[in-house]
Input
Amino acid sequence: MSFFETLKQTELGRELLTFLISMVPVLELRGSIPIGVSMGLSPWKAMIISDLGNMVPVPFIIIFIRKIFEWMKTKSKRLSDWVEKTEVRAQSKWERVHSYELLGLAILVAIPLPGTGAWTGALIAALMDLRLKHAFPAIFLGVIVAGFIVLGVTTGFTTAFSGN
Output
């Protein structure tokens, strides 16, 4: 039996897997909520665990990503090119939300599509020199809204919000 199969055998294991999946870039809560629900967690528990797990990497990204990117640029041409492309993508997203500033950042994070989410929001905040104390609440608001959207899509909006 694999490690993941073993974890899925207990409620705590399913909660831990959901939490860990929510921290993975690209998957984030778009993947963790449906997976948590499919493993038998209550939809609300899956959403809350996913929201919290999705926020764990945010302060680290905001505080350290610029230093990491600078280090990566010195290691190889391939890494340097990747960092440059990532910075350009973040800049283009920032230009779309800049006029709304922190509300725009929250809205960007709240849209549960690829290329949005807490990782992207934190990256944009870091590269645009937003302070953690301002960016974190905006990103968290976006994560909560995205969580409700993904929960609704996962379970059906009428089921998710009717209390049944």
Notes: The chain has ten helices and no strands. The mean pLDDT is 90.
